[in-house]
Amino acid sequence: MAGTRTSTRAFAATMVGAAALGMLPSCGSPQEDTTRPTQLTWYINPDNGGNDPSKSGQAHLAQTCSQASGGSYTITTQLLPNSASDQRQQLLRRLAASDAGVDIMSLDTVFVAEFAQADFLDAVPVDRRQAFTDDVVAPAVESATWKDTLYAAPFWANTQLLWYRKSVAAQAGLDMTKPVTWDQIIDAATSQRKTVGVQAKPYEGYTVWINALTESAGGHLVTNPGASADDLNLGLTDQAGRRAAHIINRIADSGVGGPALSSSDENTTVDLFAGATSGFMVQWPYVWAALPLKGVDMADVGYARYPQIDQGRQSRPPLGGIQLAVNSRSRAKGAAWDAVRCLTDAAQQKTYMLGAGNPAARKSVYDDAQVRDAFPMAPLIKESLDSGAARPSSQFYGDISGGLYKSFSPPHDVDPSTTPQDAQRFIRSVVRGEALL
Fold first, then answer.
1. What is the pTM of this model?
2. What is the Rg, in whole angstroms, of the alpha carbon atoms belonging to the chain?
3. What angle separates helix 84-96 from helix 8-20, to the nearest 10 degrees?
4. CB 155, CB 344: distance < 8 Å
5. Strand order in 319-326's β-sheet?
6. What is the DSSP letter of 194?
7. Would you tell me which of 154, 193, 219, 339 could form a disulfide with 361, CB atoms 3.0–4.6 Å apart?
8. What is the C-alpha separation between 159 and 136, in angstroms, rounded?
9. Cα–Cα distances in angstroms (integers) from residue 404 to residues 6, 7, 202, 306, in the given order
């Protein structure tokens, strides 16, 4: 199927050219009036609060920090589309057109490198960096950094846990108080005729799984982050990449992935786990609140650290979340960073975790009694975040991810002896502009 390259450089060049020809509306803003509160616009990703400040989402935090500023600034919010790819596209269109009306943006962790490389993000001022990194889980800071420069402030972070039916694990003889491997849970599910829920449709969630498997096996999808298209090195054909393909192959061939493995995403995985055949599932912590709504008996639900690839080697759980970045073309960058400081402090992250259910990036939040009451697995979330594996930091991330999940789809066709090599060859061709996604 024909397609187009999605690298930031090509996209940005197209958008800037369009703006020059008058195809995009003018997005400039008048000179700031210092006699009134600075007006800041924050582009937020969807959460359960939407644009309603009376609810517990980002709009509520915007209202709280506006009031706390003592009249220094006022934050209004604009809602981005639902999917991460659509969020990326909308922000790129505006930033490539030098839209000064975007001050703050909620940015998926994987897009920081791409946006920073294109000079769309304001580097965090040196005197503010400590405030955005102290008490923050290390992988979230790494994801906010590009070429040794901090470009964003970790807002909330995310990780996956292994969720399981206590009754199934007990009948299979698994001791869930100790680390378990993927092979062990596949064998347990097979022996009990139960399922292992994973995300394996051709989308970003599949990349999350492949990356976590590779990292847990001691490897990396990209071995030289920040490299140019010609110099980019991939680790898919290393032993770790082949081990990742082996686990995917086992899930598919054994049938424990369920009848719709090749179209499974977060929602379908929750539905699978809520069914009578469920045994295990890797998922984000939001399912703690979602499963009771599906009629699941929570007394039979346990949680543990992400599975190991090799017994004795600590797993590297997936890392997700949102970073707050400031537009390099904003006319109120000082006020914007002041606002980001408020929005990402421990108090606001606690409020957001309790209200929206999204885990905090600051470690101290997990020691709070209210948080531990609402999230009994809070210590495990903190541990998983601190040892988590971010997806590759690269200005070509969109091409890398798209090429990866396309090459590994459908999971029933994954062959450890050929798929990693084919995927590596294809991704290199896409990044160099020699093939289309």
1. 0.90
2. 22
3. 50
4. yes
5. 73-79, 38-44, 104-108, 319-326, 153-159
6. -
7. 154
8. 14
9. 14, 15, 9, 22
